[in-house]
Design brief:
Blueprint lengths: L2 E5 L5 E5 L4 H9 L8 E4 L5 H13 L2 E5 L2 E5 L6 E2 L1 H4 L9 H8 L1 E5 L12 H9 L3 E5 L2 E5 L8 E3 L5 H12 L4 E5 L5 H12 L3 E3 L5 E5 L7 E4 L4 H13 L3 E5 L8 H8 L2 E6 L2 E6 L8 E2 L11 H8 L5 E5 L9 H7 L3 E5 L2 E5 L8 E3 L3 H13 L3 E5 L2 H6 L3 H6 L4 E5 L1
Parallel strand pairs: 2-15, 3-14, 6-7, 10-11, 18-19, 22-23
Antiparallel strand pairs: 1-23, 1-24, 3-5, 4-5, 7-9, 8-9, 11-13, 12-13, 15-17, 16-17, 19-21, 20-21
The structure holds uridine-diphosphate-N-acetylglucosamine.
The site of uridine-diphosphate-N-acetylglucosamine has 20 residues, from helix 1, helix 5 and helix 6.
């Protein structure tokens, strides 16, 4: 298993190109199940999760072919089963459920089960599909969904906001009979990107960027070409990297508007963001100050940035109260950060971070995707050497981490 070795203390300086968003690419790839024609996706990052999704689609009969830095998806659905062996690697596999059901009237998808950051049920996905006329049974760890006469449009009011359930139902509703209205829908930029691609494929969707999506089902969808939006979480993560090292980094392709509350919180902490046409620059005027954050659905502070912001706060002046509202077990990075000298107390869903004078390098272990980057950030700022093990978590969602950091002067290497 690979680990990453970082010698801290170098301010990052240079340009980092932001890759295409992982969390947009995964549902967009599932759109390959909605048509017989070719779907061409560009700005796709090279990530382990994208490879897993390609493997899952291949199992359904959809070939995913790399074509000049793009992905071309095409083929006929030959199997409607998403097996446990693939789904257990990546929860987002559940995104094939809606498209398979809408397209073929049948799907058998393994239940994702728990994961490191909480129980993460899929009840909202299932209830929404039931409201659209699907019959759902849970058997032997699988969701077996059938809709022999096709899905019917329905009004679905989500009791709380779910990104995945909104995506699954949006894709399913595009091919349902009649009108579907999704209320209290997620409005993350990845949802808007998905809706744009579906519209390019012939779907009729209104209400983009709002919490109510109205979909007029169509009989079939056609091929399209779509360029994936830049990854807002990768953007926020590298903004934290520039800030924690007191560096000066230009984030190329970054879209400030997609960062929501992250930019406001960074600014409050003393980070200076200067917008340009093709990205923004991140610098720091003076020291960092403690800022309180609470994770919320977009445009609130994203849960996927919580661990990285916490790392930043470990060396800020004063205290920071960090409250995690989306997932129930998302503080696994805390004991690892503590091994590097961070002063953090957890009280239920909140963590109090008291800024330390400095962090020191230590051997630490990555526990989940975003948590692993919080350790990278701490390592970049720490005195001495840090070795982060289990970096496969990092490879799921961050493209070319070592190259991007090393190009800006970081002392970082991958150790096999
Ligand atoms: C997506 C993102 C993930 C991000 C999360 C929240 C992808 C591939 N993943 O995950 O990186 O952290 O949004 O922004 O885009 N829930 C239920 N029942 C359901 C569905 C969700 O109880 O049927 C709960 C979850 O356990 C969680 C909350 O709702 O507590 C939000 O989850 P959701 O928005 O669905 O997250 P994902 O789509 O899984």
């Amino acid at each position: 298993m690979d680990s990453i070795r970082i010698t801290g203390g170098m301010p990052l300086s240079g340009t980092i190109a932001i890759s295409g968003a992982k969390n947009a690419a995964l549902p967009l790839m599932a759109c390959g199940l909605l048509t017989d024609e070719r779907l061409r996706l560009s700005n796709v990052a090279k990530l382990a999760d994208i490879a897993t999704m390609s493997q899952l689609l291949a199992q359904h009969g959809i070939e995913v072919t790399p074509e000049n830095g793009r992905l071309a998806l095409g083929g006929q659905i030959t199997s409607t089963e998403a097996p446990y062996d693939i789904v257990r690697k990546m929860r987002a596999s559940i995104l094939v459920l809606g498209p398979l059901l809408a397209r073929t009237g049948e799907a058998r998808v393994s239940l994702p089960g728990g994961c490191a950051i909480g129980t993460r049920p899929v009840d909202l996905h299932l209830k929404g599909l039931e409201a659209m006329g699907a019959h759902i049974e849970l058997e032997n760890g699988y969701v077996h969904a059938t809709a022999p006469r096709g899905l019917k449009g329905a009004t679905v009011v989500f009791p709380f906001i779910s990104v995945g359930a909104t995506e699954n139902l949006l894709m399913a509703a595009s091919l349902a009979d009649g009108q579907t209205v999704l209320k209290n829908a997620a409005r993350e930029p990845e949802i808007t990107d998905l809706a744009k691609c579906l519209i390019a494929m012939g779907a009729k969707i209104e209400g983009l960027e709002t919490d109510t999506l109205t979909i007029e089902g169509v009989k079939s969808l056609h091929g399209a070409a779509h360029s994936i939006l830049p990854d807002r979480i990768e953007t926020g993560t590298y903004a934290c990297a520039a800030a924690i090292t007191g560096g000066d980094v230009f984030l190329e392709n970054a879209r400030a508007a997609d960062l929501g509350a992250v930019l406001t919180s960074l600014a409050e902490a003393g980070v200076v963001i200067t917008e340009a046409e093709n990205g923004f620059r991140v610098t720091r005027a003076n020291g960092l100050h403690g800022v309180d954050i609470t994770t919320e659905p977009f445009p609130g502070f994203p849960t996927d940035m919580q661990a990285q912001f916490m790392a930043l706060m470990t060396v800020a002046q004063g205290a920071s109260l960090i409250t995690e509202n989306i997932f129930e077990n998302r503080f696994m990075h805390v004991p690892e950060l503590a091994r590097m000298g961070a002063r953090i107390n957890i009280q239920g869903a909140s963590a109090i971070v008291r800024g330390a004078d400095h962090l020191t390098g230590a051997p630490v272990m990555a526990t989940d995707l975003r948590a692993s980057f919080s350790l990278v950030l701490a390592a970049l700022a720490a005195q001495g050497e840090t070795t982060i093990s289990r970096v496969y978590h990092l490879d799921r969602g961050y493209e070319a981490v070592e190259q991007k950091l090393a190009n800006c002067g970081a002392k970082v290497e991958r150790v096999a």
